[in-house]
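Structure first, sequence second, as always.
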């Protein structure tokens, strides 16, 4: 089920009403949320419910075994059961065909032909997100940072809670499970901010991202015929398309959770207002970047074993982070670019004894991110390298416009989205709390304006970009 679909427009208020009719029993509310989450996920393909149920059973059982085990050796044994089981499922469904194709291609290049090793399997939506969420739960228990859950319905709800099930935010057990396992009260302020954030998210996705995507798709699908200026504009549009698409999804997820009394962690904090790449990753997809920092970078040794090992850890973390996004060498290269420049930044700051760059850092950061996005968007390495070569050939001839109305709409909506972000960024209130600034009347007017704009600028695009990861 998609957030921007008619089904969700019906699903959300129905669940909301029934949920608060059960306000005297949080356990009954959890049962409702669990059933609703399985309906939400099964709407796409009910067959893959078996995977999320298996993962939930596994980590519910393993979490208790880790906590109850005597001695580090036994604790580590049960942790490895969780790691190998969850990563094994992720590896088969998401990466097996990628590595099988890469192996066959490598053998072919050296003159050895091998039979087709790929399998006819479909990537389950959201598997990367809920796998990381359950892994962090097991690791936190192993590190004695949380206690294992003994409430099976509550734990299953934690794994599958529908607002964050498909594309995050990747919620930590330390934040979400205590909220699930206690009574929630109807909070009008939370509901107001939730509604505001849901509609901001819909505007970001449906009005801005989808209209930018029309131009991006038309250019990138025929990149060979376009000049430098057209490819550059399309790439800039894509940088904002993926931002408004994914931050819009996160806004709807966080806002939906508020309607049920849950507070999710922030996932975006205006990343394009960053003066360094390090700052960018503290603002972009924060739940993933902090997950990679806490469970991968620190586990590799972080910055505790000398500067060379620190650079290695940064690069490995970002390479794996790139591969997490998709089974393609383009994603690995994308992660590698970020890892390389993060290492260069760390070296520069150390050598010059500074903590950040001046205003020029905004341009530097955006350029690095922009070049890396080309590998993220292009279908393969050849097309990405061709696009980069063409952009840096500086053949800035006439700009391809295409449908003039669609192009003007995209530019206008991008400007509106940027100004809204700038206004909130310069305020002392985060987007998650911004709805508290408005009375019920003002909030109703704002929501009505957003609905009008959604109707005026609705496009045929539906899926969120991060669904493919």
């Amino acid at each position: 089920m998609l957030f921007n679909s008619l089904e969700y427009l019906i699903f959300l208020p129905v669940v909301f009403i029934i949920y608060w009719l059960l306000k005297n029993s949080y356990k009954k509310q959890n049962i409702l949320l669990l059933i609703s989450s399985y309906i939400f996920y099964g709407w796409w393909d009910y067959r893959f419910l078996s995977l999320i149920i298996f993962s939930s059973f596994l980590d519910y059982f393993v979490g208790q075994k880790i906590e109850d085990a005597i001695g580090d050796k036994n604790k580590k044994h049960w942790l490895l059961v969780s790691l190998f089981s969850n990563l094994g499922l992720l590896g088969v469904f998401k990466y097996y065909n990628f590595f099988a194709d890469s192996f066959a291609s490598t053998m072919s290049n050296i003159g050895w032909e091998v039979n087709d090793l790929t399998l006819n399997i479909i990537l389950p939506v959201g598997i990367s997100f809920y796998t990381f969420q359950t892994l962090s739960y097991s690791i936190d228990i192993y590190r004695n940072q949380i206690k294992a859950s003994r409430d099976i319905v509550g734990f299953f709800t934690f794994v599958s809670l529908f607002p964050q099930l498909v594309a995050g935010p990747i919620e930590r057990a330390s934040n979400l499970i205590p909220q699930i396992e206690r009574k929630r009260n109807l909070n009008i302020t939370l509901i107001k901010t939730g509604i505001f954030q849901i509609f901001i998210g819909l505007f970001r996705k449906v009005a801005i991202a989808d209209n930018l995507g029309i131009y991006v798709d038309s250019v990138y699908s025929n990149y060979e015929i376009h000049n430098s200026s057209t490819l550059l504009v399309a790439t800039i549009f894509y940088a904002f398309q993926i931002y408004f698409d994914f931050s819009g999804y996160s806004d709807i997820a966080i806002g939906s959770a508020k309607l049920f009394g849950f507070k999710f962690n922030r996932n975006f904090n205006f990343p394009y207002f960053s003066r360094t790449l390090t700052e960018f990753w503290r603002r972009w997809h924060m739940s993933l970047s902090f997950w990679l920092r806490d469970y991968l970078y620190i586990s590799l040794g972080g910055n505790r074993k000398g500067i060379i090992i620190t650079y290695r850890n940064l690069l490995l973390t970002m390479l794996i982070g790139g591969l997490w996004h998709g089974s393609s060498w383009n994603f690995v290269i994308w992660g590698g670019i970020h890892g390389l420049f993060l290492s260069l930044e760390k070296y520069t700051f150390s050598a010059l004894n500074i903590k950040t760059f001046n205003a020029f850092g905004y341009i530097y950061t955006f350029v690095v991110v922009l070049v890396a996005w080309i590998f993220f968007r292009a279908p393969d390495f050849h097309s990405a390298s061709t696009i980069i070569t063409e952009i840096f050939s500086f053949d800035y001839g006439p700009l391809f416009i295409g449908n003039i109305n669609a192009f003007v709409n995209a530019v206008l909506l991008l400007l509106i989205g940027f100004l809204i972000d700038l206004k909130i960024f310069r305020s002392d209130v985060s987007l998650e709390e911004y709805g508290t600034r408005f009375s019920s009347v003002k909030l109703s007017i704002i929501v009505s304006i957003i609905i009008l704009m959604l109707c005026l600028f609705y496009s045929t695009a539906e899926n969120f970009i991060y669904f493919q990861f």
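Margin note: The chain has a mean pLDDT of 88.
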